[in-house]
Design brief:
There is one protein chain. By secondary structure, the chain is an alpha+beta fold. It has a single domain, classed as Rhomboid-like (Rhomboid-like fold). The chain is about 55% helix and about 15% strand. It has 8 helices and 5 strands. It is globular.
Length: about 240
């Protein structure tokens, strides 16, 4: 198990947009998890409670209205299924989001996050079906943008393997690609996991594509001390 702890990316200014997103996600997820009625969770996830007329048992039904799916793709990214799920996603968002927030600016970062959440959620609905909750699709989009602009920057990683654990540094490109490879491998194997793999892949493609477009168009250029993925591959801008 590899868990990122800190990205070695010099950040000028405060990542206020990332902090605001995290506070919003933590607040909504906490309220939803603590609310006894579960109304907020059900609404943002697109679920409704139905009573079986024959047995009287309660069942959850997912919204079938295709017009609502884009809204649910974003609103469900503000929810989490449990405290560990929330804590893990917020750690990833803090590690990678601060650097991407610095690069994209506050408005650009929020747009990137929402676009990745949208594409990731729609990918899940189209290819997997059923409800999904969690910010991991959007976070994978942030990681995709990180890969484009900071592939050579080191990330401090915590590892746990059987009874051994500790920390070490590894390049961002290998860490991000490792996580993407795991998702793709599980999909290829048809593994039955609780993770929304298509949301991960869809969000990553959206974030990576948006960052690559910004780089190729010259909208967000690297500074002198930064090396982008294209430069790393020998494609100089």
């Amino acid at each position: 198990m590899l868990i990122p702890l800190k990205a070695a990316v010099p950040v000028w200014g405060r990542p206020w947009a990332n902090v605001a997103l995290m506070l919003l996600i933590i607040s909504i997820s906490t309220i939803a998890l603590l609310q006894e009625s579960g109304d907020l969770f059900l609404t943002l996830a697109g679920l409704s409670v139905q009573v079986d007329p024959d047995t009287g048992e309660l069942a959850f039904e997912f919204a079938k209205n295709i017009l609502m799916l884009p809204v649910l793709a974003v609103s469900s990214s503000l929810l989490h299924a449990g405290w560990l799920h929330l804590a893990g996603n917020m750690l990833f968002l803090w590690v990678f989001g601060n650097a991407v927030n610095y690069k994209f600016g506050h408005v650009g970062y929020v747009v990137l996050y929402l676009a990745a959440a949208l594409v990731g959620g729609l990918a899940h609905y189209a290819l997997e079906g059923g409800p999904v909750v969690g910010a991991s699709g959007a976070i994978n989009g942030v990681m995709g943008a990180f890969l484009v602009y900071f592939p050579r920057n080191d990330v401090k990683v915590f590892y746990f393997w059987f009874l051994r654990f500790g920390t070490f540094m590894m390049s961002g490109i290998w860490l991000v690609l490792m996580y993407v490879a795991w998702d793709v491998l599980y999909l290829a194997m048809g593994a039955d996991v609780s993770t929304a793999l298509w949301a991960h892949v869809g969000g990553f493609v959206a974030g990576f594509g948006a960052a690559l477009l910004c780089l190729l168009a010259g909208w967000l250029r690297p500074t002198e001390d930064e090396e982008t993925l294209l430069q790393l591959l020998g494609i100089h801008q």
